[in-house]
Amino acid sequence: MQQTGFAASDGSPSALAYSFKDAPNTGIYRDSSGALILQVAGVPTLRLTSTGINQLGGGDFVIIADDVTWTIDDFTITGDDVTWTIGDLAVTASGDVTFTPTGDFVVAATDDITLTADDLTFTGDDLTWTCDNFVITSNEANSLAVGRLGTTTPAFQVDASAATTVTGVKVTAAASGAGVDLAAISGAAAEELRVDAKGSSGVFVGSLSTGKVYLGLGSASPPILASGLTSLATDTDLTLTAAQLSTGLIVRTGLTGHRVDTVDTATNLQGVFTATTGRLAQCLYVNADDTHQITFVGGTGVTVSNPNAVLRPQSCATLYFRNTGAAAITMYIVTGSEQNSALPRVTKTVIEDDFLDGALTTTGNIGSIGMGITGTVTVANVAGLTDHPGIFAITANNNVGSVNSGRTILSANVERFTAIVRQTDITTMSMCIGVQSSGTVADETAQGYYFSFNPATDSHWRTITRDATDIESQNTTVTVTSTNWYLLDIVHDFTTPSIKFYVNNTLVTTHTTRIPTTQALLYSFALDSNEAVAKVMDVDYIRVETRNGQRWT
């Protein structure tokens, strides 16, 4: 066969078919398969065949151009690193465009990367996007589908197939410990957020977490829901901790006397409930004792809305805690009905009077409980006032005397004495209010336990316990002021034993000595004017509780 033109041998890497005078190791040769090999500086670089171009060696394949257009059926790039630095890249393919890198595939752009396609599928072990904004615009039911089987059974799916989609869900991240927010978004001023299970299955909130579940409706805040039980069998006055109250249910048992329980501080309560102002939390409190009642006082920053509420034996109360501000909580006590007790009046006696009926004489029938007079004092009815429906006045004029029960109760049985009183003039007037062995003295000489006041010695309420041997007296920090009403409460704690004195539901002193045990006592209001000027004590209410034990053999 006759050949035309210049013909050379196939050559080899060491003896090129075509080379350069000043660079004999740069040129072209033909390998055994018939492919042309382009060699530069002794290194085979490109391999040209009838089917394509292949890069040889471990260097980079770089295309630098203003416009690169590929119109192909299949486009395959296999490499560790692929870098394009171009103005515009347009890929128009009637078939598939496949990237199969063995290393990293990195797209770095200073402006925007826009992908427009009917279906866009990414398949890889790890897919990381680092950008200012990542936006997907789609009107399909599978606008975003994530899962092992893609759109067949996705683990996560965004459906944007509605003709007009202007609602959505926004996830807002925050710093560690600040939580994450999920909210509805739309062009409307208000938008619902609905969460549903499939079919007849339930919706569970907080089923794996160990914290509380908070429910809120904007400015209207329903109670916080809790699930737990705290059993308290301690026969003492207690401080109810925030952790105990947050369980949602407290059951109190094993009492042998009236108890005064103090709730935790507002700061501690806000730590376990919430610090959000206006939030409401609740706890159900059960007094499972048969004979003894419970009252509540607030810790620091806790205001008890109804401090006179009493949780009676075999009854329950709901304690509501409303957050009113920084380190401030208002506590509301809603008591339930008293349950049937087997023998409610056998092991406990309660005497109380609001002085709305009964006579006002010296014959032993003052009020409905029939109190009498000892010494030289007078008694008169006083017109009722707001919150004080029944009042009787005891007047002493250069004399001393008392209004008392007339019948004695052994000190071993007296569990609690409560009274509401005021003094219209405290100058030179002394008084003793409580349970004491004599109804004719107001000078702290009687046995018993009672409140005392004598302006000649101190301007504050004093607390007294006295037995047949000696006296224990303590000064409180509560100043006695004329015309002010005072709630005086004396509680006999038989387990310590101790006598606890409260003024306006606040514990002021505790006595542990000189507590009479076998002395017969009267509950009384003793008054001494100390001068020839009438001195008046107004009495609004009295309550006496006794602990009786078993009365039969």
The number of distinct helices, counting runs of at least 4 residues, comes to 2
Percent of residues in beta strands?
Answer: 35-45%
End-to-end distance: 141 Å
The counted number of beta strands is 37
Structural overview:
- Helices cover 2% and strands 41% of the residues.
- The protein has 553 residues and is an all-beta fold.
- Among the domains are: 18-51, no CATH class; 230-335, Jelly Rolls (Sandwich); 348-547, Jelly Rolls.
- The longest helix has 7 residues, at 266-272.
Per-chain topology:
Layout: E1 18-19, E2 27-30, E3 36-40, E4 43-48, E5 53-55, E6 64-77, E7 85-99, E8 144-146, E9 156-158, E10 167-172, E11 181-186, E12 230-232, E13 239-240, H1 242-245, E14 249-252, E15 259-263, H2 266-272, E16 280-287, E17 294-297, E18 302-304, E19 310-311, E20 315-325, E21 328-335, E22 348-353, E23 372-375, E24 378-382, E25 391-397, E26 400-404, E27 409-410, E28 414-423, E29 430-436, E30 448-453, E31 460-466, E32 471-479, E33 486-493, E34 498-503, E35 506-511, E36 520-528, E37 534-547
